[in-house]
Amino acid sequence: MSDMERGSLTPEEEILSQRMDKLRRLREEEGYDPYVNESWGVKHTLAEVRRDHDDISVDESREDVSLSVAGRLMTVRKQGKASFANMQDETGSMQLYFRLDSMGEECYRFFKKWIDAGDIIGVEGHPFRTRRGELTIAVTRCVLLSKALRPLPEKWHGLTDTEVRYRKRYVDLMVNPEVRDVFRQRARIISSVRKTLEDHGTLEVETPMLSYLAGGANARPFVTHHNALDLDMYLRIATELHLKRLVVGMMGRVYEMGKNFRNEGMDAMHNPEFTAMEVYWPYCDYVDMMDLTEEIVRKAALDATGSTTVTWQGTELDLGKPFRRATMVELVKEHCGVDFDGIDDDNEARRIAEGEGLALEGDESRFKVLTMMVEEFVEEHLVQPTFVMGHPTEISPLSKRNPDNPDYTHRFELFVCGSEVANGFSELNDPIDQRARFEDQAKLKAAGDEEGHPFDEDFVNALEQGLPPTGGLGIGIDRLIMFLTDSRSIRDVILFPTMKPKA
C-alpha cells in the first residue's frame, strides 16, 4: 500500500492494514499460522487463580504452582528484557509478567515481535504478587492462539458510544465487563422464573412461531410468505391461544418462554423482537395470577441480586412487600378527581376528558376514555409495583367478565416505574361470548384498526370443547430484567437488539 493510500485511511483502517501485514509476515517469516491451533489446555480461569492465590503476600512467588490460562490481551507494555500485559477472560482480568530469563530467548522474542493488544493467547506460568501488591502471573510459556486484526477501542476499559455498543455487541462485551454481568444476571433471572413455575408443577412447552393468524394480543404482526403453500403467514405476537388450546387438551399447567414479534415502534421500552413468558393454570383465576406474579418477581430479584430491594435509574423499588392492587376507576379518581362509576354517558366522559386536556376523535366510548385517561394521567405515577385491575371489556377480548359488572373484566396489568411488566386475567372460557367479542374485533379490523384481533374460528372450536376455569399471565421478560439490572433501555438487556442498517 502506497503512502498516499495509507493517508486516506481512518486510524482503525490503518491499524487493520498494519495487522494484516504483520499476519502475512508472521506466516512467511515464522511459518506460524495463529488460526490453526485447535486447542489450548485451559486448566484455570482467571477468577479461579485470584480465588486460590489471593492470599499471596507482597514479593511472594509460588513457583511450585503450575498455571495454564487463556484469554485476550487488553493492554501490552513491552520493554527490554521484561514486559507487562493485562489479560482478560470471561471471568475477570489479571496482570501478566513476561521476562526473558523465565521464557527463554526465542519465546520472549516471539512475544515482543508478533503479539499485540487484542490478541488471544495461551499462557503457562506461576502466580506471584508484585511490590505494588498486584497479583500477577509470571509467564514461562506463551502461545498466540488467534491474531486480532482490528484494534480494541482506544479506551479499552470503556466503550461508551451506545450506537456502536449495540451494533458491535461483541466489542461491547469484550471491553465492558459490567455488560457481561448484565447478561449473566439475565440468565439467572430466566432460570429463576423457570424454577418458580416448575416448582408449581408447570410444564414448559413450545408452540408455533409461524401461524396463519396473529392472535393472542392486539398488535400489528410481521407478515411473511410460505412458498410451498403459497400462503401468507405471521410471526407470532403472543403464545396465548395455543397455550389455552393445550389446557383444553388436558395438559394441565403449562408455560412458554420465548420470542414474540410485533411490527411496531422502537424506544427504550420496545423492541420488535422480545422475550415473553406466558403461563396458564386451570382451576385458577386472576387473583391467583397476581399472587404468582409477585412470587416470580420477588424470587427473580433475590436470585439475581440477593435482595428484594433494587434500584432502577435512581429509584428504589421495594419488591418485598405486597404489591398495591387498585382498579382503573379508583386510580383515575385518585389522580384526576374523576369518578367513572358515576358516568354512564359517553358524551359526558368525552367532555370531562377534553376538559382534562385529552385529545379525542369524538367517537370514543366512556370505557375507551377511561383507558386513555389511565394511559395519559396515571401510568407515569405508578412507580412502586402496582396491579392495575378492572379493565373495560371492550379492550379485553380474551378476559372473563366481572359478573358483578359485565362492562369490566377480571384482568390486571403490573406497572413498575410507569411501564407495564405483566398482564393477566381470568381467561374467557365462554365460547359464545368469545365468538361475539371476536366478531366485534373483526369489525374494528375491517374499519382499519391494524391491531384489531383476528377472528380465530379454531380457537372458538377449542372453547366449545370446554376450557376449565383458567388463570393466565404474561410477563415481559426483557422489561423485568431491565428493572432488576438497573438498565436504562431494553437494548441494554437484549444481546443483539434490532437496529436500522447503516447507510
From TrEMBL:
- State where Mg(2+) 1 binds: E413, E420
* Cofactor stoichiometry and binding remark: Binds 3 Mg(2+) ions per subunit.
> Is Zinc there in the keyword field?
no
GO MF terms listed in the record are: ATP binding; lysine-tRNA ligase activity; magnesium ion binding; tRNA binding
Record keywords: Aminoacyl-tRNA synthetase, ATP-binding, Cytoplasm, Ligase, Magnesium, Metal-binding, Nucleotide-binding, Protein biosynthesis
Q: Which family does it belong to?
A: Belongs to the class-II aminoacyl-tRNA synthetase family.
Q: What is this protein called?
A: Lysine--tRNA ligase
Gene from which this protein is expressed? lysS
